[in-house]
């Protein structure tokens, strides 16, 4: 945070500084996909075949629609159109609305949202799961 005109505080994004891209196989979007820490610059720099989108708290805006939109904007600036797969950890309203609203753009950018179709059962607990191969 720095002082702007009139001594008001101006927030600076410090999530990912500008620089050359980094290529990874699997990335967990930080801080439950909250827009305070992830922006377009993150997706321009951190390029991955798979992104895990966590968060299931609408009140805290997690996952954030702004983060999901930033993925589209950041990926549109990649030189290649490699396939990207999003792996949501929860079936949230934000994720469903974003998926429906931007489906055509997702297809243009070669982005796929992975739906969980398997269930893992461990002792008294069961939960949705998906398998990815790297």
Automatic annotation (TrEMBL):
GO annotation (BP), single: dendrite development
GO-annotated cellular components: cytosol; dendrite; microtubule; microtubule associated complex; neuronal cell body; synapse
Organism: Anthoscopus minutus (Southern penduline-tit)
PANTHER family linked to this entry: MICROTUBULE-ASSOCIATED PROTEIN, MICROTUBULE-ASSOCIATED PROTEIN 1B
InterPro entries: MAP1
The organism's taxonomic lineage, starting at the top: Eukaryota, Metazoa, Chordata, Craniata, Vertebrata
GO molecular function terms attached to this record: actin binding; microtubule binding
Gene behind this protein: Map1b_0
Protein name, per record: MAP1B protein
Highest taxon listed in the record's lineage: Eukaryota
